[in-house]
Write a structure and sequence with these properties.
- Its main location: membrane.
- It is a multi-pass membrane protein.
- The protein is α/β, with parallel strands linked by helices and about 220 residues long.
- It folds into two domains: about 70 residues; about 130 residues, no CATH class.
- It contains four helices and eight strands.
- Helix 1 runs antiparallel to helix 4.
């Protein structure tokens, strides 16, 4: 239990370090060329101008926001290095799941700015269903998308900031699976359990010792 409590404190320190790192990276804006040569590129800001592939909109399924089911809406932007998936924001699911919601598709080129993020992969999934392509996706599988589009797809997603040409979409803040405070709370629980067990063990030991001594005294009296 003490080891588990210490491990939770270590995880809390790691999460704080990760948050600090993401905050620092969020203040740095890189070009696409600089970003591609980095091994760890997530969290940096990217600003670029380009046009979206015409007629292609992807809806990432099973995205819940404030208790409502919906989709993350993505479109591929054409770059010299390949297609860049741009997360435009969250859109609620309609009354009929079979009907894909409509999203405006303004023509022309755009200057987009946002945060570079990992492609979304749920913990458990069976992959993307061919019959739902090219609209609804269960996971952002960039190699699979490259095969579908027959051209390279960059291995990260650009998550747009507030604003833009899509007022019907909601921009969600990035979420961390577990905040440092949660790890500290779990550590306290483990330490309290360890202290409780230690106290119970000490009480049991004293109780057993007194019983043994009392039995020994009783036998000595009977022997006399």
């Amino acid at each position: 239990m003490v080891w588990l409590g210490s491990w939770q404190l270590t995880r809390a320190a790691q999460k704080r370090q990760l948050l600090d790192q993401m905050h620092q990276r969020g203040q740095v804006e890189l070009s696409l060329q600089d970003l591609l040569v980095k091994e760890d590129r997530y969290g940096y800001q990217l600003s670029m101008e380009g046009g979206f592939a015409p007629g292609v909109t992807l809806f990432l399924d099973n995205q819940v926001y404030q208790g409502r089911p919906g989709y993350q809406v993505l479109r591929p932007m054409v770059t010299a290095q390949g297609l860049l998936l741009v997360d435009l924001g969250w859109l609620p699911q309609g009354q009929d799941r079979q009907v894909i919601p409509a999203v405006s598709q303004p023509a022309g080129e755009y200057r987009v700015r946002g945060r570079v993020a990992r492609p979304y992969h749920p913990p458990l999934h069976l992959g993307n269903a061919e019959e739902e392509w090219p609209h609804r996706l269960q996971t952002i599988d960039t190699p699979w998308l490259a095969k579908q589009w027959h051209q390279p797809v960059l291995p990260f997603v650009l998550v747009l900031e507030e604003g833009g040409a899509w007022p019907e979409l909601i921009h969600r803040q990035p979420e961390m699976p577990m905040a440092p405070s949660r790890h500290i709370g779990y550590a306290v629980q483990w330490f309290v359990m360890a202290l409780t067990l230690t106290g119970l063990t000490a009480w049991w030991w004293r109780k057993t010792t007194h019983e043994v001594e009392a039995e020994h005294v009783h036998r000595e009296k009977e022997a006399k």
